[in-house]
Amino acid sequence: MPTYPYSRDLHTVEQLRQMERAALAALGITGQELMRRAASAALNSLRRHWPQLRHICIHCGPGNNGGDGFLFGVLAREAGLQVEVMVLTTASHGDAAIARQAWVAGGGRVQWVGDDDTLPDAELHVDALYGIGLHRAPEAAAARLIEQINCSGQPVLALDVPSGLDTDTGHCAGAAIRADVTVTFIAGKRGLHTGRAADHVGVLELATLGVPDSVYADIAPDARLLVAEVLPRRMRYANKGDNGHVLVIGGEHGMAGAARLAGESALRGGAGLVSVATRAEHVFALNATRPELMVHGVDGPQALAPMLERASVLALGPGLGQAAWGHALWLTALDANKPLVLDADGLNLLAREPRRFSAPTILTPHPGEAARLLGVSTAEVEHDRFAAVRELSSRYGAVAVLKGAGSLIADPDGRLDVCPWGNPGMASGGMGDLLTGVVAALLAQGCSAWQAACLGVGLHARAGDRAAQLGERGLLASDLLAPLRALGNGVSGREREHD
């Protein structure tokens, strides 16, 4: 697929409707012509992905998405394909009714979906049931059809969005199409890039339908996709003091590994010096296995104070625990008012004792931690990840990273970026500790909190994709350390990059 100047931009449904109206006016065309362009783009996608295919079944809803499907059927039949069309309702409305009439006028047959109907024996199913406006669970008949399509064993091409997926949030309130390919029209849609969308969109392609640049320039995106970035080359005269001193605070009894992973990640992320404040019992093991870390046993705030004075950035929370020892170190570290990355039990303690931050601060919660910070359920966070991460950032005065499929990064001004990389193998212990370390290292090297969060999230996810080339299952957090170093230095690899 070609790339476009605005292919990073992600929009809400309200913005997309504005863009569609502006596009029709700017191009001087009807809604029917725009539908025909969408149908043509979808047919081109079909030919690219399934060039030998001869028999398709298109499932059309009553609205404009169904209209795209009817015109897709017209073009596909003209191209020599065997086409069957199934509909949810006996009538369509608006431009979709005209598109339906065009299909029937050309000799096309419409099969209504009944309770007992089985799917045709097609080689491909085309989803044109619901468009961008669906924010609820599909009705019973549509839900049954969606489940039949998902269980058919045949590939699925979704037009604009997989039906049942909320275009604004990526949430599925009920049944939702699991597409192999989704061709989305005009502009990027934010809900297709996070949360449940990862299991429903498949390969995502953008077809702008000839919309002029002026339409995109007039409507600021709600969010943007991250792009692959690296730090600039270091000056040859550089010394370790130029690259910051990260202090990792954590490692309660039995959790030395979390502190070590965060510390080693900070080293691989380029920090000049990395210290670890942990339980005394862990010092020997950490010094023996990673001598580049400066590991100190601390029994309370008094022992931590001189380490805080020397550090330029704090990484607070990996393996910290919430008992008296961890709580005392947490309070002391926050009172130092230094640039900070807060994760794990550092976040859980913050949920118990909320505060706003004045120093540059980055919060890195998973959905469960985010729910505790916001005083809601995890399900509510996942229902609208965009609203949740923005509320986190606004409430705590910090850059917030909401981890998960399609991690989100937000700042208190409402700016939001979405990470397009990462894989299910990264759902394992220690991955969050690595993220804490690399983000802290970037903050220590002079990045702003926003820059450190965006670059760190991107490097972490891309390292996970490179490490998963041998398979996702069984991926260890420490497997990311070597690719993390390579990617931070711009060493090319075979991992997929977002254009």
From TrEMBL:
GO biological process: metabolite repair; nicotinamide nucleotide metabolic process
Cofactor note: Binds 1 potassium ion per subunit.
Residues annotated as domain YjeF N-terminal: 16-217
Record: residues binding (6S)-NADPHX: 64-68, 131-137, 160, 258, 319, 366, 433
Residues of the signal peptide: none
GO MF term list: ADP-dependent NAD(P)H-hydrate dehydratase activity; ATP binding; metal ion binding; NAD(P)HX epimerase activity
Domain YjeF C-terminal, chain residue ranges per copy: 223-491
Amino-acid positions noted as binding K(+) in the UniProt annotation, renumbered to this chain: N65, D127, S163
Cofactor section: K(+); Mg(2+)
EC number: 4.2.1.136, 5.1.99.6
Record keywords: ATP-binding, Isomerase, Lyase, Metal-binding, Multifunctional enzyme, NAD, NADP, Nucleotide-binding, Potassium
Keyword Transmembrane: no
Pfam families recorded: Carb_kinase, YjeF_N
InterPro entries (UniProt xref): CARKD, Nnr, Ribokinase-like, YjeF_N_dom, YjeF_N_dom_sf
CDD domains associated with the record: YXKO-related (cd01171)
Biological role: Catalyzes the dehydration of the S-form of NAD(P)HX at the expense of ADP, which is converted to AMP. Together with NAD(P)HX epimerase, which catalyzes the epimerization of the S- and R-forms, the enzyme allows the repair of both epimers of NAD(P)HX, a damaged form of NAD(P)H that is a result of enzymatic or heat-dependent hydration. Bifunctional enzyme that catalyzes the epimerization of the S- and R-forms of NAD(P)HX and the dehydration of the S-form of NAD(P)HX at the expense of ADP, which is converted to AMP. This allows the repair of both epimers of NAD(P)HX, a damaged form of NAD(P)H that is a result of enzymatic or heat-dependent hydration.
Family of this protein: Belongs to the NnrD/CARKD family.
Name listed for the protein in its UniProt record: Bifunctional NAD(P)H-hydrate repair enzyme
Species of origin: Rhodanobacter glycinis
